[in-house]
Amino acid sequence: MSATSRRRSALAATAIAAALAVTAAACGPADEETGAQASPSATAPDGKGGPGIDGLRLPKELPAALKDFDPEKWKNGEWRNWDKDDWLREARDFVNPIIEGLWNPDRMKDAEENDRRVDSDVDDGGTGGEGDEGVTDPDPAPKKARPVTAPYRENAPAVGKVFMDTPKGPMVCSGTVVEDPRSPGKSNLVATAGHCVHAGSDGGWFRNVVFVPAYNDSALKASQLEQASPAEVAPHGVFWATWAQTTEHWISNGAETGGLGASQDFAVLRVEAEDKGGKSLEETVGTAVPVDFGKPSVASLSSVRAYGYPAAPPFDGLTMHTCTDRPGRLTMSESESTMYRIGCTMTGGSSGGGWFAGGGSGERTLVSVTSIGTIDHTWLAGPRLGEEAEGVLEGVSGKFAGEG
């Protein structure tokens, strides 16, 4: 077996199981129980796929995790059971049913940052090595995060927020619409950080993972959002992850603190609209960003621009921000590859946000995503996207080839 084949076989084990869809009543953070009831049905409601109940779409071949799956219990709160015996670690055992209305504006607003911070005095990997590898440059000067000009649909159309439920409650990250090599012009792929979808070595997959492009498009303040319509909060709607993949390195080594696994902290979601309208995510938002998996050298990058929705103080997670800086190199340890690092004051919630390199919006490419930052919010670091990250995107793209 070739190295490429071995890599793809290993990555296939990290794919999230096939998509489901459940209809349920909208609910807020204070009372998330849903009251909608499902009735038995011999087939999926759209006439496709395997057995199901009204409002539930099942794949033709049920994965092992679904043999005992009870959709009524799930939509009525079973997804909040994070007992170790039930929080399944294996990718094939993960399910992400679409619960319509779960992520309403109030619940989105109250979700907290999925933060990964390290001490600013990290134990670096030295100053030697071949090329960029094994090198740590001096700490960058902090660069103040600046608000992105609204409307976001026009000024940063590929950027949005990623929401997920975790054992600690609802949390947020950031994400970017990226090109799908097998569906040009019709991508449904979102790049984010691995820790935004999977807990790493100490846990499993998160639940109710969604992407909201151009969240709070008009940059409304908290008081204004209280009265905002769903269309103002989520102008393109809510897109649920129907499949996701992260790296084996993150699953095996990722940790909540200390930066372990950060050098491969990358994930790709395949999404579909909660209100299915036939258009792809790329067609809906009007763009998708190409990804550079060539691990551009630091010397070749005159600057990168990182985007995200920082949620920890002094930010509130409601508005999009950006930092621009010339990247340096950061090596956390001998077991971790060298990462890009920039000065930036964005806080938790910006995790998973894309790092763009290049000229105008039509020439920009994604070269990294935010993985870690410092406790005192002076810099951010992201993985250099190479072969393993490319395998993640290829795995998700190939899974849905031909579906548009």
Task: Write a brief caption for the model.
The chain has nine helices and 21 strands. With 404 residues, it is an alpha+beta fold.
Secondary structure elements and pairings:
Elements: H1 3-12, E1 21-22, E2 40-41, E3 52-53, H2 71-75, E4 98-99, H3 105-110, E5 112-113, E6 117-118, E7 146-147, H4 152-155, E8 159-166, E9 169-178, E10 189-192, E11 207-213, H5 222-225, H6 230-233, E12 239-246, H7 248-253, E13 267-273, H8 281-285, E14 304-308, E15 321-325, E16 328-330, E17 339-343, E18 354-357, E19 365-369, E20 372-374, E21 379-383, H9 387-399
Helix pairs in contact: 1-9
Explained architecture:
With 404 residues, the chain is α+β, with helices and mostly antiparallel strands. It has helices spanning 3-12, 71-75, 105-110, 152-155, 222-225, 230-233, 248-253, 281-285, 387-399; strands spanning 21-22, 40-41, 52-53, 98-99, 112-113, 117-118, 146-147, 159-166, 169-178, 189-192, 207-213, 239-246, 267-273, 304-308, 321-325, 328-330, 339-343, 354-357, 365-369, 372-374, 379-383. The strands form five sheets. A six-stranded antiparallel β-barrel has the order 8-9-10-13-12-11. It has a five-stranded mixed beta sheet with strand order 6-20-21-17-16, with no helix packed on it. Helix 1 packs across helix 9.
